[in-house]
Amino acid sequence: MATNQLNHVVESAKQLSREELEIASQRILDMLDDMRWDALFKDPRSPKLLEKLAKEALEEGTEEGGFDIAQ
Asked: Are 62 and 68 contacting, i.e. CB atoms less than 8 angstroms apart?
C-alpha cells in the first residue's frame, strides 16, 4: 500500500512546476524531520538524556553574549 501511495505522490509531483516542487519537497523534508524528533522524544531514554544535557549546560554556563540564564 505504501508503495502505491508513494508512486501516486511521484506521479503527482511530475505535474508540478519547479517552484511548486521545491515547496512540496521542503514540506516533506520538514515533516520527516518532525517525525524523527517525535520518535526521539518517545524513546524512554530521552528524559534522562535531556536532563543530563541540561545539567551539563547549566554547569558549564555560557560565554559572554550567550544565553546564560543564571545572571
From this structure: yes
Whether residue 62 contacts residue 56, with contact meaning beta carbons closer than 8 Å, is answered with no
Q: Distance between CA 46 and CA 40 in Å, rounded?
A: 7
Strands (E), 1-71: none
Measured CA to CA, the distance from residue 53 to residue 69 in angstroms comes to 15
pTM of the entire structure? 0.57
H-helix or E-strand containing 28? helix 18-42
Kindly report, residue by residue over 11-41, the tens digit of the pLDDT.
Answer: 999 999 999 999 999 999 999 999 999 998 8
Q: Using one digit for the tens of pLDDT, what is the confidence trace for 49-60?
A: 889 988 998 888
SS (H, E, C) 55-70: HHHHHHCCCCCCCCCC
